Input
Amino acid sequence: MRLYSLSVLYKGDPKVHLLKAAFDVSSFSFFQRSSVQEFLTFTSQLIVERSQLGTRASVKEQEYLCHVHVRSDSLAGVVVADAEYPPRVCFTLLDKVLEDFSRQVPRIEWPSGSPGTVSYSALDEYLSKYQVGLPPR
Output
């Protein structure tokens, strides 16, 4: 069971953009890591773009399962995991991350934010906590 990425995005009109992301591509060879990370980012943006506001879904893309939650306030989260990782845990993680993000990052920053401008550092911590496949106690 493995998580590969955890992303927070903004579903703007007309475009979706990445606000913050954390990746674990250590299981890939050194030479594949940047292209895998690019693929994970692109796939996350595409899935949010195709999802309606206020929805949750799990989408299979190649050998990955992408779990997406787009809130009605246009804030979205995506977890990319392997097929063995329990979807329920992924959605619990997304709920926590989106709630925490919306408390720490002012809503006015969402439409214009980018990974370089948004100051939110908890994604890497969440990704490592949930990497084992079970929620922390």
